[in-house]
Structure to design on (198 residues):
């Protein structure tokens, strides 16, 4: 049994997520095997690219029902966070429906898309995953779609308009930014995830 499994979604940022945990002293297993995922004590769902392609990859790997049934703590990163919601407008595709929410195009109010670079969070909730963060911390984002703010938002980010930067419900959470590319503050989020007891 691996303490942490990073789901092999066929996306490009998996090795950088793996090494981010390695720097924390966490040995992770990268796997698309449902048995390994079910046996893990914690799961990370990374992703870059389009929601439609990512959901097709999960379907082909017979991982959708496996991920929908997880009882362990699970963290979605970037596109992986968006896949946790009910539906994405990017390709008009149903997602895993683990956290209520809708993925919409960013209403950037004339700002350049994709939203790429460093930004701060606001409306940070009291939650174990958000321990140690405040509005002065900068996180690295790359995306053109975002989860609309809702009751499951643990933090918001403003890029022309607000979108959810972190969401959680029960044992499942997601971060829109890339913690593996966000330096010490990103490492803190991953450490908080490893210590989280939902």
């Amino acid at each position: 049994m691996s303490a942490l499994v990073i789901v092999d979604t066929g996306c490009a940022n998996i090795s950088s997520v793996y090494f981010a945990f390695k720097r924390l002293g966490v040995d992770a297993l990268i796997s698309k095997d449902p048995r390994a995922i079910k046996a893990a004590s914690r799961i990370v769902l990374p992703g870059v690219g389009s929601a439609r392609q990512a959901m097709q990859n999960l379907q082909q790997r017979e991982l959708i029902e496996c991920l929908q049934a997880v009882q362990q703590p699970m963290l979605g990163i970037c596109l992986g966070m968006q896949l946790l919601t009910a539906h994405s407008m990017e390709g008009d595709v149903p997602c895993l429906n683990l956290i209520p929410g809708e993925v919409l195009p960013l209403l950037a109010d004339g700002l350049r898309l994709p939203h790429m670079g460093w930004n701060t969070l606001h409306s940070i909730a009291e939650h174990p995953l958000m321990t140690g963060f405040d509005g002065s911390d900068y996180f690295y984002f790359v995306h053109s779609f975002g989860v609309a703010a809702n009751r499951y938002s643990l933090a918001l980010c403003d890029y022309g308009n607000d979108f959810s930067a972190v969401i959680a419900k029960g044992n499942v959470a997601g971060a829109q930014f890339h913690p593996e590319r966000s330096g010490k503050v990103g490492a803190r989020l991953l450490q908080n995830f490893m210590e989280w007891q939902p």
The mean pLDDT is 95. Residues 179 and 187 are 6 Å apart (CA to CA).
